[in-house]
Design a protein that fits this description.
The structure holds two protein chains of two kinds.
Chain A: H1 2-8, E1 9-20, E2 23-34, E3 38-42, H2 49-56, E4 64-69, E5 72-73, H3 80-85, E6 88-90, H4 103-111, H5 118-123, H6 130-140, H7 155-168, E7 173-177, H8 185-200, E8 205-208, H9 212-216, E9 221-226, E10 229-234, H10 236-240, H11 243-250
Parallel strand pairs in A: 3-8, 3-9, 6-7, 7-8
Antiparallel strand pairs in A: 1-2, 1-4, 4-5, 9-10
Chain B: H1 2-29, H2 37-54, H3 59-80, H4 86-106, H5 108-111, E1 124-125, E2 128-129, H6 133-155, H7 158-168, H8 170-174, H9 180-206, H10 216-229, H11 234-250, H12 258-279
Antiparallel strand pairs in B: 1-2
Helix pairs in contact in B: 1-6, 1-9, 1-10, 1-11, 2-3, 2-4, 2-9, 3-9, 10-11, 10-12, 11-12
The chains are: A alpha/beta, B mainly alpha.
Chain lengths: 252, 291
């Protein structure tokens, strides 16, 4: 029975703990991310949402607890780039782009699997990603020339490129850290539309978001964080009426 | 006589083109603030010399082996400092250049220490020995062209692009599944390999090396070239050595006493550097924007 449960989950997290000098950023946090669903993680500032993403992608190491990808436990000692190559794509609150590289460079780096080999890179067959790049940029609606440098993009375009790179990177799950934070209302709706398209394609997505209204008609399941622990979970409708959630957001 | 002098100046230009380009691989393209490059140049010069003189290896073998030995030193340097970032890495590499200098000075049994190694043989292959300055110039131009071509291919390949991505945002690259540590190791090894080629070209040309050729102010000269040409600028790395070497050479024709000439060169380097930093902070051909 327990095994079956894990099978439907892409990521299962059990009792994850992380403290920064006495403050518990993650406090016995347990949750399950279902395949082909969009799961939202909401909660006030400093409730440990981003820390959870960093712990999953091993940018920080958790103090204790277990993380399973499919049915396999991820060893705590696995380096971060390895986690990424297991199929976890992610974005950051502040898009992490390569400022002196172009849009095309970003997507080719994300798509290519063997550009880190000098010999293959020099003598191997040139990989052609043109079609894929076109398709992904069309999906995210970033219509700037391919040779535009990342440093010349606006804030919103940077967010889109970051998202495009995460989509391009071979993955089985995407962790999106506040994809619409600081974005204007028009682009906000466009990003919502992109996420819905990805959902239709069967992607598994976890999204961190502050704004309840943004996720209500978008996601399948919600976890609410406060002080590093899950204080509520359920489908959007249940969460909307949950007293504990309102308290965490609005105070007593 | 004047032809000899001019040819010799251009041989130096060739050596510095290779050095500047190779430093730009680690410093400019990969963003490793590498102040130990001159030590790698020295290791290359000494390895090639010692392999040829002590082990009687043919020139070509010594020349290439020097590259391989030096790239292992480059690997050692970047592996030992893999936890260090930015300024701390820069300090460690500076320390590396002092360590290598001390070793060259004190391993008297191997390097003859401060006495230096005289009588380094000129390159010879297929029964031809490059005894004249002109033949050496041709050889230097050939090797430089080859290095320029190979480095061009490397930095403009998908691999070279990853090096630039490592410089711009390491974490951003790691979450795309790329092992940035490995990229840094490879970058440093390639950089060291070409530094050694330049070192070998230098040693077999002047036929005498001692540790003073590989000291701190040589690093400054090299960094000046990279900055004047532009960080991660391929064209700049080729043109800057011409400017930095040729302009001070013009002073020789002004019949200035040599006691003044030396300090005068330093003043000119500083002046060029200040002008560039004031008017073109990214260098003559640089477009890279370091955060």
């Amino acid at each position: 029975m327990k095994q079956n449960l894990i099978k439907q989950n892409l990521i299962t997290i059990k009792n994850l703990k992380k403290s920064f000098g006495g403050i518990n950023a993650l406090d016995n946090c347990s949750l399950e991310i279902k395949k082909n669903k969009i799961t939202a993680i909401i909660g006030p500032n400093g409730s440990g949402k981003s820390t959870l993403f960093h712990a999953i992608s091993h940018l920080i190491s958790a103090d204790s607890g277990e993380i399973y990808l499919d049915e396999n436990e991820i060893s705590p000692n696995m380096p971060d780039y390895w986690i990424a190559s297991l199929g976890i794509a992610r974005t950051f609150q502040d898009a992490r782009l390569f400022r002196n590289l172009t849009i095309q460079d970003h997507l080719e780096i994300a798509l290519s699997q063997n550009d880190d080999s000098l010999l293959k890179s020099l003598f191997g067959k040139k990989e052609n990603f043109d079609e894929k790049i076109k398709e992904i940029l069309h999906l995210v609606g970033l219509n700037k020339p391919l040779n535009t440098l990342a440093t010349d993009l606006s804030y919103g375009q940077r967010k889109l490129l970051d998202l495009a790179a995460a989509i391009a990177k071979p993955h089985s799950i995407m962790l999106l850290d506040e994809p619409v934070a600081g974005v204007n209302p028009v682009l906000r709706n466009e990003i919502k539309h992109i996420l819905k398209e990805l959902h239709k394609k069967g992607e598994t997505i976890v999204i961190i978001e502050h704004d309840m209204n943004f996720i209500m008609d978008l996601v399948d399941y919600i976890y609410v964080f406060d002080y590093g622990a899950v204080i509520a979970e359920g489908i959007p409708k249940e969460i909307q009426d949950n007293k504990k959630v309102l308290e965490a957001y609005l105070g007593d | 006589m004047i032809e000899q002098y001019i040819m010799s100046v251009f041989i130096y230009v060739c050596i510095y083109i290779i050095l500047t380009l190779s430093l730009n691989i680690s410093l400019g393209y990969t963003g490793l603030i590498n102040l130990g490059h001159i030590a790698l140049f020295g290791i290359g010069a000494y390895s090639s010399t010692l392999l040829m003189m002590n082990l009687d290896l043919p020139f070509i073998i010594s020349f290439l082996s020097a590259g391989i030995i030096t790239s292992l030193f480059g690997l050692l340097l970047v592996f030992a400092t893999k936890k260090l970032k930015g300024d701390y890495f820069a300090l460690a590499t500076l320390g590396f250049s002092f360590v290598i200098y001390s070793l060259l000075l004190n391993l008297v049994g191997l390097t003859r220490g401060p006495l230096g190694i005289p009588g380094i043989p000129k390159p010879s292959f297929f029964g031809i020995t490059l005894t004249t300055t002109f033949s050496y110039l041709l050889f230097a131009i050939f090797i430089t062209a080859l290095c320029v071509f190979i480095i061009y291919k490397i930095v403009h390949s998908p691999f070279g692009r990853l090096l630039q991505a490592t410089r711009d945002d390491e974490i951003g690259l790691r979450v795309l599944g790329k092992n940035t540590n490995l990229l840094k190791y490879k970058s440093m090894m390639i950089s060291a390999f070409f530094a050694a080629i330049a070192g070998s070209l230098f040693a077999h040309y002047i036929t005498f090396i001692d540790p003073t050729s590989f000291v701190l102010h040589e690093v400054i000269l090299l960094l000046t070239m990279v900055i004047v040409g532009g960080i991660a600028s391929f064209k700049g790395s080729i043109i800057a050595p011409f400017i930095i070497i040729l302009i001070p050479e013009l002073l020789r024709f002004l019949s200035i006493p040599s006691a003044i000439l030396g300090p005068m060169r330093q003043i000119i380097y500083a002046f060029i550097l200040l002008l560039i930093l004031y008017y073109k902070p990214r260098g003559l051909f640089g477009r890279v924007d370091l955060a």
